[in-house]
Every structure is written in C-alpha cells, then in structure tokens.
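[step 3/7] fold_predict: job queued, chain A
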Amino acid sequence: MIHRRSVFIAGGAGLALAAVGARAQSGAWPDRPLKFVTPYPPGGLSDQITRYVGDRLAKAIGQPVIIENKPGAGATLGTEYAARATPDGYNFFVAPTATVCVAPYMRKVNFSINDFAPVAKLTSSYGLISTGKNAPFNNYREFVAAAKAAPGKYTFATNGVGSIVHLTAVLLHKKAGIELVHVPYKGSMESMTDLIGGRIDLMYDPVTAPRVRDGILKGLAVTNSVRYPLLPDLSTLAEQGFELDSRSWFGVFAPKGTPPDIVARVSAEIKKIMAGPTVRADMLISSMYPDYEDPETFGRRARNDSAFFEDIIRKEGITAE
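[step 4/7] structure written:
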C-alpha cells in the first residue's frame, strides 16, 4: 500500500531559489533541499506517489525533498507554477498523463509539454472494463457484438469529459465500430454505485477491481497489455482481438533548461527506487505497477502521447464542460 508519509520539511531559508550559476559556485549538487510539486491536494493518488518517491529520493541523495501541493483549476494552476520554476536542479514536478498531455488541448493554459524536461516515468496503470454482474455478456468481445446490434443503447461512465478514461474509451469504441452514450461523473465512487445498481452499463476504471474480484461486478477486459494481478483470469483487450495502447502513467518532470547532468542523476536514483523489492506490491493497491523509463525514452513517450491526445480531441470535437 502507498502510505502518505511526512517528508522531511526544511525551513523557509531552504526554499530560496538560486540561479544555475549560483549552483556552480556553491559546490556539488545537491547542497540544499529539492522541491517536488504536485498539482493536486494532499491525500490523493498524485500526492501519495509524489511522497512515496520523494521520501526515498531524500534518503538516496542525502538532502530533504519538500513536497508542495499546488491544486486548483483542474491541476493546471500547479502545472503552470512548476513549468515556470527556476531550472536550477532543485525544482521537480510529478504528474499523470492528463495533466501535461491532455489539459493543454482541453482548456486555455499557459504551458505545454515543451515547457518541461522529462526526468523519469514512474508507473503505468492497470485499466479495467467492468459491467453489472447480471449483464448478458461475459467479455468485451461479446459486449461489442451486443453494442453493434443496438447502436446507442448502452452507456459508459467516466470521471469527466476529456479525462484519460474518456479519451481512451472514445478511441476504443471508434476502433471497435460501436456507438455508446457517455455519462460523465464527478468521481469513480458515484459511477461505480450506479454500475452496481444497473443504472449504467459499462465502466472503464480499475477502481472496480475489488468488486469484480468479489463477484459484485463482472470484468470484461483489462485494457493494459499485461494482466491485472488482482484478476489473473481476466483476459486483456489484446487477447480478445482489440488493439489499445495504455497511455496512463505518472512521471517526474523538471522545468525546461534544468542541467542534463542533474536530470540524469535524479533519474538514475528513481530507477533504483522503482526497482525496490516492495514497490510492485506497494503500487498494486492503487492499480499501478512500476514502469520506469529514462529521460530520453520518457520524453519521447510524453511527446507522442501529447500529439496522440491532441489528435483525438480535435478530430472528435471534444470540449471541456
């Protein structure tokens, strides 16, 4: 389980930002605390991931890692704040795909993926498609056949227009040649309650995994390329003949212009952290698994995912509510 921890907090003096030149004059990096920004409030998944990595990084480099929660405006406030931070090797940013690869195309913001230097991909998420336990289909292939026979009959829930779940579902439906009615919710718990109650037909969210395991709901497919350990008998979309690349991840970024040697050092330490013996089990409760990528590989992925979601949003005419 990912535990929310108290990460070493330094005083105000340790928060002062310095120019890159000052770093060179003051000695070897790091000679003061690092700051990790998350654009979400305390207690949520992004906060937990940030603290999980920050706590272990602090021990590895011998300096405190200060976690700064900067929520607001659908996570765009903290993202812009992080993009404008001084690129001195002491400022970093942890975010999921949607924050940096989707938000710039859904609303007016003052940042893009090009404002960040990729540091490391941390995790990928298990995706899950589930339905009511009494539904007349037992896998996603059977559901597609039913949906083709009755266009517009079935509904699917997501956690909002323009969310990763929504965009992924739109793409999958298009590839499968089916038409479903989108029912956006403010949160997963509300949609899961309606799925159990039979008020909606489909849900694309791994939060339903415990209910599927307990027989309260029925799993139709795992949307990742690997099977979900909590549901080892449930086949993936690929195994059922559907192509869908998983693009749901958490990653670490730095402001553009951060010294490459520092980016490489932090990334190398994160690689060790994500290879730890308990990390896979720690992440599983949050429906994620460690999936480290180095700066070059992660940067390529982030840019490709940004272009991928921009294309979907524009072609499908998806706009923020």
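[step 5/7] annotate
The first strand starts at residue 34 and ends at 38.
The radius of gyration is 21 Å.
exit 0
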